[in-house]
Amino acid sequence: MSVQDLEQFQLHEIPALGRLYLSAAGNAARSKLTSSASTQTLPAARHTVTNARVDLDRLTDFQRLVLRSAQDTLPSGYVHTFAFPVAMSVMAREDFPLPLLGMVHLRNHVTHLRPIHYTEPLSVTAWAENLAGHRAGTQVELVAEVRSGTELVWTGRSVYLAKGVFLPRIDRPQARTEREDFTPPLPTAQWRLGADAGRNYAKVSGDFNPIHLSSLSAKALGMKRSIAHGMYLASRVVAEAGPALPEPFEWSIEFESPVFLPATVSVRISDAGAPGDMAGTTFTGWNQRSRRRHFHGWARPL
């Protein structure tokens, strides 16, 4: 089924993430009470919000949190937080085959097509595709498109994993994919993240997923402690790596291991090519003590 064949659902406004999490919790409770088999397919639906406005106070708080100076155009990571509730409304549907609560963020790819002024009314469309097996469960891709009028200005593709959820008719890889050996390089920065880092990001993004808020709520969903939001890490590293890039640009990030809070994250941001050739940057974040890599990716001009 192509994207054009998906049924269109018009939302009146950007959904509140807190309500979506409550809805997801209700759906999870109902699924435990029913003996019927859960659906094995993704909803054939696109969710859209039109002419939505950016909250200037939230934007300013976001810019301060990811160490960007205040400006009139939207950081690429902020656009994700703006569009994310529409994508999450797809995952919170009763006919979505995977549990929303406890979903693990695996990777992102974003195309930022031009500067977006905070006063522009924006439309967001989101849908799910590519339900697939994973050695640790089942993964799915959420796609979001942001438009100003009819002009496409930003697209994002996020991959999430429902850990421990194996749908009967979804094949999964039998062999574990070998990761490349990682030798920590010299860091260019050290990020010191407090136990409240998840709560602080939740306040500016609206993403109050329990796995990020406290050790108690994270343990209830199978984590040993609360973990940093993947999009906080992505937004911060792209904000630090991206100022030298012209717009349009694109960036990609893959998350390899969670950042358990509190934490110190070693970060290296490097030119991808020779100085001045506009090849973009690469970035890596890791735990200096355990030598485990948390994330890696790149940002480059289109």
UniProtKB/TrEMBL annotation:
Gene Ontology cellular-component terms listed: fatty acid synthase complex
InterPro entries registered for this protein in UniProt: Fatty_acid_synthase, HotDog_dom_sf, MaoC-like_dom
Biological processes annotated in GO: fatty acid biosynthetic process
Source organism, top-level taxon: Bacteria
GO molecular-function term, one example from the UniProt record: fatty acid synthase activity
Positions of the MaoC-like domain: 195-272
Family to which the UniProt record says this protein belongs: Belongs to the enoyl-CoA hydratase/isomerase family.
PANTHER family documented for this protein: (3R)-HYDROXYACYL-ACP DEHYDRATASE SUBUNIT HADB, 3-HYDROXYACYL-THIOESTER DEHYDRATASE HTDX-RELATED
Protein name (Swiss-Prot/TrEMBL): MaoC-like domain-containing protein
Organism: Arthrobacter caoxuetaonis
Lineage, opening ranks: Bacteria, Bacillati, Actinomycetota, Actinomycetes, Micrococcales
